[in-house]
Fold these 4 entries.
Entry 1:
Amino acid sequence: MLLNDVYSSNNAPGNKYLKMFMENKPITLKQACLAKCAECMNGFIDGKKDCEMNGICPLYSFMPYRKKEKNKKELKKIITDEQIEKMKEGKRKKQSK
């Protein structure tokens, strides 16, 4: 990717940092990850989309447009009456000491 291409690209996260890198300006580790995404995705010229490189690219977790995983239903533990009684007994024993 040429510097002129970067300057004419959109304002997607990473493009700014890629410009800074190409101008030999210091950038942080996070900014470097976003800049690499912008470089790999050609400055997001075709739109801000997920690269779908999950499991392939080690920087995918930093990708600004990755698809969010669907929330998994949290399993709730059901406490039985018997377990509640045992907890109360344990608490009473601890308080009586």
Entry 2:
Amino acid sequence: MTGPMRPFWLSIVSVMAPLAAGCGGSGAYGHAPNYVPLDPEVSAVAGARQYDAASARVQGPEAWRKAVVLFGVVESRSAGPGGQALLKLSVRRLEPHNACPRAGDDDSCRVTVSDGDVGTVWALVSLRGDDDVGPFAVGQRSLLRIVGTIGQDVSPTDGAPVVHASWYRHFPSAQYLVKKPG
């Protein structure tokens, strides 16, 4: 195709190609009946153990070097060392099935976590791009899945452990649900 139509078709293709690539699967926010890890997430969590708040405080340095994985709802965010974000998290359990308000409509499904927390942890996270600044930045009520190691440092405010994140996945507040008791 030549002439004035070629730039028009190129612009259509350049707009539609990314949209088509984003279709299918559960997308970045897990719109599926069950939790679907992203490809980089699979390798990030391989070998990591589920975070346990009760045992985190009593484990020695050998256990601290092993990676842990957790889901947490952000209670507060402040500046941490080296440009990192220091996040106070309410640790939650991932529900076995995502909530789907409209039956048969995967787009209505949201990653679902427990209503009650199972402990508090602080996390030092190097946030990327829009997760750091902007309308969908990590803030209060965001949900994060974090992989990292428990540091020897503890929060000076409440003595809770500090997890040094090596990887994270962010769900803005409107992109996940909390299972109500009962």
Entry 3:
Amino acid sequence: MTSRPAFLPVWTIAMAATVSAFVLHLALRGKTVQYGYELGRARQEQARLREVKRVLELEAASYKTPERVEIVARTLLGMEPPRPERIVTIPETPLAEPMGALTFGAEAPAAASPGQGR
């Protein structure tokens, strides 16, 4: 008779553990399916954004062509080629040293040097 009362609590614990494991399995399976759908949506969004990026890169490249710049300047901005009297030509000069290079090599004035005249 002692074996019979010990069987019932062990059987109850075993059944509770089995049911708990099955419920845990179902919960994890549900989460796996949910994450799979989220991953699919994220991949679709990624593909859509890649396509948008490709289209925008093509559009940006078309804005850099001289023909496109001229069309925008004439139509949207109302620009026109300058009249001949508005064109000013600048005579070419030989390349000179930058202004900073000239001042470093020049001698300082006598009045500006410290220690003289005291």
Entry 4:
Amino acid sequence: MPPLRLRAPHAPHAPHAPHAPHAKQAPGPACQGGFGGWPRVCEDSLRSISMTRARYTFDSSRSCVWVRGRSSLHPINSETRGLTGWFEASSTAAGALDLDRPVSGELALAVERLTSGNQLYDRELRRRIDAQRYPTITGVLTGVARAAAHPNYLVTGDVSFHGKTRTFEHEMQIEIRPGGVVLSGEYVFDIREFGMKPPSMLMVRVYPEVTVRVELHGALADG
């Protein structure tokens, strides 16, 4: 009869510790993508991705400035094209300006292009401006800050007119588009700030405040 073999009893298994519940993730920003294996990209990430700095040249045939003035007799309005200049900026993938990088630009307009259709008024205006001595109105962009929301921005710049340079700050809309940019805005100037007296003709008084609206169309510069 074969000898009996005694086996030591197995030690009881320690009970498994309960799994800790998974922490719930806080809802994140709305995302897009996640199709065909591509990673999901959140809107916040899109806003933070900066594109290459680009230079745009203003189209003088499309860019325009409208000037509205008043006299004691009737309104004085003009519409002028022929503005020249450029704008440089970087933008995010969402189309907003990247204000962490420099934004710059310049604008110029020949005084002789300003016309109201009234030869008597235009001749007196050029005489007061001294157009032969100061033939060009220029603007230099010196700063851009966020306003309410894109595409609204608070723009600071130096305007040179009639031999005087003054700094102004006003709101503009700046939209980066495929292959181009559009800047638009409106501001009320007092020509006396530039040392210029309002024109006067016979018994007609011209008021010094003028409303200037500008719309600039820039095309992506080559290279």
